[in-house]
Amino acid sequence: MTSRIRPLSAAVVSATAMVVATALPAHADTYELTNADDGTIKAVVVGDRIKVTLTADSGTGQRYLWSTITASNVLTLERVESRQTPEGGSTATFEAVGPGPSDITAFETCTATLPAVCPFVSKTWKVVINVE
């Protein structure tokens, strides 16, 4: 026996469209993070964007470089842009795509030309993002 598929009424289609439209964020905010935000916790909502800009330190005979900025949970934060700057900085933009926590991290390394000495070999920059 074959069953026939009946077309949806206009009311059902309209109600479905309303549910889909209200499930999306009304507007997305963009949050900017820098070196100074290291060690902080931020709250955002799905649809928001987070732009991270890390600038490299400079010193006589020392060269500092930031690694690629990453998120620990790709189900929560999706990286949509990433680049390294010629000066050793790093930038990345993330979109909040699902609820939950995620760490955004990067590592700064130092190399020195003698007689200069690096005050550290590597240091970690980290911000915890809670997506609601």
Map the helices and strands.
Blueprint: H1 10-23, E1 30-33, E2 41-44, E3 49-54, E4 58-59, E5 62-66, E6 70-71, E7 77-84, E8 90-96, E9 100-112, E10 122-131
Parallel strand pairs: 1-3, 2-10
Antiparallel strand pairs: 3-8, 4-5, 5-9, 6-9, 7-8, 9-10
Describe the structure.
This protein is mainly beta and 132 residues long. Helix content is 11%, strand content 46%. The chain is built from one helix and ten strands; from the N terminus they run H-E-E-E-E-E-E-E-E-E-E. The chain has one helix at residues 10-23; strands at residues 30-33, 41-44, 49-54, 58-59, 62-66, 70-71, 77-84, 90-96, 100-112, 122-131. The strands form two sheets. Strands 2, 4, 5, 6, 9 and 10 form a six-stranded mixed beta sheet that branches. A four-stranded mixed beta sheet has the order 1-3-8-7, with no helix packed on it. Residues 1-24 have low confidence and may be disordered. Residues 1-28 form the signal peptide.
